[in-house]
Structure formats: C-alpha cells, structure tokens
C-alpha cells in the first residue's frame, strides 16, 4: 500500500489481510473485520473466521491488519522501550514526521478500501468493527459511503467528541463506575453480600476500609509491602473488565481482609509481575506504539494531565489509561500528527447498521452506543444492548449449553441475522439465554473464574 494514499508513487508499506472462504457453493457476499486497540492484531480472528466459514458457508470473511500493527509494517523501536521518548525519536528517525503521521485512521480506511477493490466479488459487503475498530469503520463509512451494504459496530467508540470529551478521556472513570456496579451486584447476592459483611456494612465499606488500611500500612504483614493504592485500583479495573475476572473481584477484597496463609499465596500470585514471555509469535499481537500514536493525536483532549492525575489519585478502580496517555502526550512529548478533514466526522448515511454493546462494558460503556445511535436514527439502524455483557460482545456473549469453542454467541447470532436480512430488526431472544456473571461462587462459571485467577475451585475458600 502507499504510505500516503494521496501520493501513490511515494513510499509504500505492507498491509496484511486474512481470508477464510465460506465452504458453500452459493455465496451472499463478504463480511470484513476490523480489530480494536488501536494496535490489536487480527490474529484473534483466525479461529472464529475459520469456524464461521464452515458454519455460515454463504459468506467469505476478511480481516484487515491495521497499518502499524502486527504484520502491517509495525511501528517498532528495538533499541528502546515502547512508548518512551527514545522510542518516539527512533520512529521519527525511521519514518520522518510526515511519514509517521500517515499511521492514522484515515489512511487505514484507505487501506481497507484498496483491499476491497482488489478482492472485488459479487453480493453484499458488510464491515464489522470492534472497539477502536468501530471508530475506524465509521471513518471508512464517511470516506466511502457507497462501498458498504451495512455496518456492524461492536463496543461503540463515538466518531466525534461528546460534550467536549473524547473516548479515552473517560476511560479511567468508566472503569471506576463498573467496579462500583459490580460491588452493588455483590451486595444484592445473599452469598456474596453476606461474605463481604464479615468486614464491613457493605462491599463499598469494605473497599473504603481496605484503602484506609493500605494508606496506613495496616494490611496484614504479608500483604503490606505488596499492595499499594495504585496496585489495587489497577488490579480491580483489570478484573472488572474481564468476563471471568469480575466474578472474583469481591472475593479478592474478602481474601485481602481475611489474609489466611492460602489467601496470601493467592494474592501474591495475582499481584506478581509476570515474566516477559519468550518471543514465540512471528509478530507482536499488540502495538503499544500505534495505540499511543493514535490516542494521543485524536482520542484524548478534553481533559488535562492534572485532571487525569487527580482522578486516578482518588479512584476506587482505574487502569490509569487516561492518565498514561496524557503523560505520553504532555510529558514524554509523543509526536502528535495533524488531524485531517475526516477526523471526528460522523458518516451521514441511512445504510443498515447494527450497534452492539454490553451494559457492563467499561471500555466502551453503553452510553457511548446510545450517543452514537443518536447520529444514526434510520429505520434500519438498530441498537442492541446486551445485558451484563462486557467489551467485545461478538466473542463473549456466551450462551447456556454452548461450548465456548463453538464461537456461537448471542452477538454472533445477531450479526448473522442482520447480514441475512438488514431490513428486519434482529431477533434479540438469545439475550435471555446469555450466561450472567455469578457473584455467589456456586456456578460452573464462577468456579472456572476461581481456577483462572486464584488457581482454586472456589472464589471464597
């Protein structure tokens, strides 16, 4: 691909596409997939696309690797740490200021269009994006309104700011809201609430007291040097956004306060810094540099570094992503590229559209999807809110009695209903069959959560 699509004879880059051909002889068209991040690799689509090609055989499936990530001319700086000032200088040396600026959503949308032109084909063409991929998909729809027969946005990132705030401006705040919601759900469960009342009037009181004890070095002796306020707020945010992790989140607070010998070993393992895995992949599965590059340029800007820091300092839970991105922009001095005419523009289209969002999604909360839906009021533009679902509903809206390896989820059924007949609202009956998070610890999924995070068979004991 051209590095700059407005300069086709200039420098070029590599852009990977992955394809799985539907096994059927009769085809309805193509479904194209965009990954999130920014910076996530399409590698996670390899297995699902293969499964769908055998089960939904009337479609061909394509996934485009974002420029700067994975195998698409990744932004790497081998001699320095990703995201550092030295890395930024290295990238500027490799690409030049103008060249580095081309690693942006508009140029990535042109890459997708160029691939679609190259592939050609008959039938309908749909574009699916997840998380940041929804932001890119909307950029594509703005630039190429006539190339699609429909758009699927999963975990919706608004194309433009809302009341002056950009999507990553509220990232840390959203994580905090979700963890407080999880604690309320724990209190509503007799088992979970009863356990937490061992150490406080309710779950929030337990969390407040835990932070007070951290601040006063009052945790049990084995945990005192291990758990700081920042470590706990980040761990709670990490668990909260994970479909399995949220089921052990209240139990973590319970175990910190109980502090038995078994609890200490579990907590130490949970908070331990993992060793860097040996390089086993052909290319990285996430580009922190591309993530920082795009976020600092166009996905933050409604707050200040001081405001981001002030929130993290008082948060119950925060991944500190908002804070880290403002640090990258304002302290590290990451090179910011100039915005183009398509940036933050909403596509004006009545084309069919399916917006999918979980109502327990901290990365792209359901309010984002509702805001986006206000820009897409068409009769064939549908918003489906999936109860208790987290981020990336296509993979994680698990159904009762369906093996996870089947890649048969509620959101998946909605997607295939939509592409089969975009003129009819999709059947949302599968939401009644979705597995809900269990905070009691009694269900199979809660025991699996305990195994994954505590290496035990019970979240509590």
TrEMBL record:
Q: Which domain of life is it from?
A: Bacteria
| Transmembrane feature ranges | none
Which UniProt key words apply to this protein? Hydrolase, Signal
Keyword flag Transcription:
no
A GO molecular function term, named singly, is:
hydrolase activity
Per the record's keyword annotation, is Metal-binding included, yes or no?
no
Regarding protein family, the annotation reads: Belongs to the peptidase S33 family.
Q: What is the official name of this protein in its record?
A: Alpha/beta hydrolase
Which species? Desulfatitalea alkaliphila
